[in-house]
Structure formats: C-alpha cells, structure tokens
Sequence to fold (364 residues):
Amino acid sequence: MTAGVPEPAGTPAVLHTPACELFGVRYPIVQTGMGWVAGARLAAATSEAGGLGILASATMTYEQLAGAVAEVKGRTAAPFGVNLRSNHPDVGQIVDLLIAEGVKVASFAQAPNPSLVAGLREGGVVTMPTIAAPRHAEKVAGWGVDAVIAQGHEGGGHTGSIPTSLLLPAVTRAVSIPVLGAGGFHDGRGLVAALAWGAAGVAMGTRFLLTRESTVPDEVKARYLAAALTDTVVTRAIDGQPQRVIRTSLVDRLEGRHGPSATPVALASALRLRRLTGTSLRALVREGLAMKRSEGLTWSQVLMAANAPMLTRAALVEGRLEAGVLPTGQVTGLVDDLPSVAELIDAMMKEAVECLERLGPPRR
Fold:
C-alpha cells in the first residue's frame, strides 16, 4: 500500500501495481497530457478520483502553467503530473517550477535528454516519456527514467506503427521499469489485458477527453462520439509526423496541399501560436533551427509543426470543426457516453475486478 494512500477495500492486490507505488496513487490509470485539453480541471479531477492527472504545458505560457499548477493543488491534495517538451525555450524554468511546487511526475510526448532526466530526478520528480518501440524504451531506461508510456498504433495524436497488443509485451520484456500501456484503452477489461501483457497500468487520452470535466466544447465531443472505428486516419499532412485524427474534409484538403501552397498558412499559424504562448520571435526561430537539426526537417516541415497546435486549438478550444483537426485514438469508435471522471475511473475499476473474478484462479 502506498504511504498515505489507503487501498480501497476489496481491490485485488494485482490492481495495486508498481505504478501506483511510484506515483503515489490508488489506481493504475493515467490521464495523458493532451494539448489544449489537459487543463487544471481535468487533471485535478483525475487525481482526486484516484488516478494520475497530467497537465499539458506545451500550449501554455510559463505564467499559465504556474497558475494551472496552483489551481490543481487548490482542487486536490493528490499527486499529479505535468507534460512538457524537452525543447521548450523555458524548459529550465519549468523544471524549477515542478521541483519547487512538489509536482510528482514529469511526462514527455517526445524523448527528453539525459541531463533533463537527471535534473528532474535529483529534484525528486518522477520522469516518464512516451515511446513507440522497444528500442526507444531501452534507450530512455538507460538514461534513468522511472517509467514509460508505451503507445501503440491505435493511439491518438502522434503515434507509432506497432499495435498495442504487440508493443506492450515487447516493451515489458525489454525494460524492468514500470510500463503504462496506451492506445485503445477505455475500460476495465482493457486494464486487465494491459496487466496480462506485463504493463503496470494504462494511460488514456481520448477516453478522458470524453468526460464532463473536459473543457472541449460539447459539439466537438458529439463529433467524437459519432465517430466509428473506421473514421480515423494516420496522416503526415498536419505537421510532417504520423498523427491519428478523425478524418474530416479539412484533413482531406491538407493531404492534397503540399509545398509552396501550404507555407503561407503555416507561417501565419506559427506567428499566432507565438503570440498565444508568449514566445519571442528569436526563441521561435531558435526552436525551429533546433527542430530542423535534430529531426532533419525542411523549413516547410518546421512551419507545419508550428501550424499543428493552432489547427488543434481551432477545434478543441474554439469549437470550429470546419477549421480544426481532431486528434484521437481509434477507441473513439467504442466510446458512447460522457461520464464524470470519477464515474469513469470507478466503473473501470469495478469492471476490472469483475473481469478478474470471471477469469478465476488458475487451475492446478
């Protein structure tokens, strides 16, 4: 049992995993740091309900993040995390904030670097990057990260090519740190399946986006709920990297737009993002140069990468379905309700217990 966190009566020991111990939470369920979605209300509700809520900092200014951290702490005393970009111009200041405020976990959508991991761990912050291949897990484990989220091809947003059912067994064999499964999870049966594959819990984005505490506009949530399992597509047309989204007419147009015709729109969005996040023009150029060097991108691809957050914001914040993209996991085709976060987590844990009871003890 985690110190200070009582284990609910009747919960099988198998559901209190090493991830629960590492994060200091009751249940092995993580709400991922979705840009424009994972704000203070959603993160706090998740942590208060016994999971691990994670704030998304990539689309916040430093001041907004500091305010969001304070708001989460005002809503719950439970542990929570912050998702950050290792190439963020204010990453050093953000690390200092996490350490000073006692934030439990730092997660990363892209691989951090060894010095960043070391600095966070020295400050008492658990580090947890998302990976999409066993070799990536081995690499970051060698840097000293505390856990990884292994996201399979079914997952939303930027995603890899290996299905979750193959990725999880491979990653849990490759590393000895706790592994959280992501991609396709939404209920208690999935949680039990992840544990059977060797994981220490699950991380979910789309399922938490479709809750009442999510600030995504209702008409946008309705579009997610209406999607079928076959209504998503993995495209490079948004920012040059494979990204799973709901297929819309805008996505189809983006896939048909290449080269010079895409550049003016991307440049305008990059400058708008700079104003919203308080990034100086010099920092924006410096970040673009770093992306160009580290990822081998052309300037057109760099502009596309800067354009992507604004396309997401148009839909998930402004509710403009015709002008924005809808990052999602394939699991959106199975979700048909909008529970509260507490109702979701409670139902997942009850179903996981029922699933374990149905399977019963192994025969001798």
Residues 13-215+336-359 form a domain with the TIM Barrel fold (CATH 3.20.20.70). The chain has a mean pLDDT of 89. The two ends are 29 Å apart (CA to CA). The longest helix spans residues 341-359.
